[in-house]
Amino acid sequence: xxxxxxxxxxxxxxxxxxxxxxxxxxxxxxxxxxxxxxxxxxxxxxxxxxxxxxxxxxxxxxxxxxxxxxxxxxxxxxxxxxxxxxxxxxxxxxxxxxxxxxxxxxxxxxxxxxxxxxxxxxxxxxxxxxxxxxxxxxxxxxxxxxxxxxxxxxxxxxxxxxxxxxxxxxxxxxxxxxxxxxxxxxxxxxxxxxxxxxxxxxxxxxxxxxxxxxxxxxxxxxxxxxxxxxxxxxxxxxxxxxxxxxxxxxxxxxxxxxxxxxxxxxxxxxxxxxxxxxxxxxxxxxxxxxxxxxxxxxxxxxxxxxxxxxxxxxxxxxxxxxxxxxxxxxxxxxxxxxxxxxx
Length: 343
Prior knowledge:
Layout: H1 9-16, H2 20-28, H3 35-48, H4 54-61, E1 66-71, H5 77-87, H6 90-93, E2 96-101, H7 106-118, E3 123-126, H8 133-137, E4 143-146, E5 154-158, H9 160-173, E6 178-183, H10 193-205, E7 210-214, H11 221-238, E8 244-248, H12 251-265, E9 272-278, H13 281-285, E10 291-294, H14 297-316, E11 328-331, E12 334-336
Parallel strand pairs: 1-2, 1-3, 3-4, 4-5, 5-11, 6-7, 6-8, 8-9, 9-10
Antiparallel strand pairs: 10-12
Helix pairs in contact: 1-2, 5-14, 9-10, 11-12
């Protein structure tokens, strides 16, 4: 039999002397065939130079092999690096991704979710935090969230509390006079609240003079710079001449704060020690490399996709076992010492 440009199931069936139903089972449910028959069909595909028709496969079984992703923004380096690491899992799991940036607008993100569902995605990864997990759980599609409220859905998060303890303890070892934590207002049911609680518990446990400065940080560079300048002015006025240990809630803001100090003084002053959170690429690439709490972004991304694939595979079974309660996986952070604290 000569090779064709477009080999059909009928061609494969004639070549192997199997029925078209058996060939269909090979593509859609290979475990239902014996290993010997799987090998026969696999060899036939190679002989026939079969090229898979993705569109036909989607129409036949309704499985698109697409996963949807919604992230808040690309300004924060944590989100851009997380997205990068998620996309790299294609080589392992074979799923493609449709990505939307919600820009922290609830109604926009709802519209994006409707758009993704219209594309028949098989699962959804959400890093944005505008839509409650109870509402997400009602979508009846496998969902895994990262670093957001997750009471009713599966999630993968960093141990934020442990990271805050590590950051504050490192600053304490350097004998700072005042300990500062900068953050956006965070609700207690969010994983990131662990950074606030860990900072407070460590300061109170060690009897350290401390202050938390909350600002409604925006997703734009200009707004963030404005709030950081206000914080810097407050520190300069209230703690002049004192050794300031500053635990910043993420590397993007920490890098901006360091840059502002360098522009003002020509270098990072001796009375400023700064540590960020994430270990996103900017922390190492900064003019003065940042000490940071590494979230192990690559591991979080891999765990999130792996968990989602498990959920999707279970749903494809003839008799799937319903999930009794959401699965929550936690990845430990890693303390990384660099120049902004090593004085």
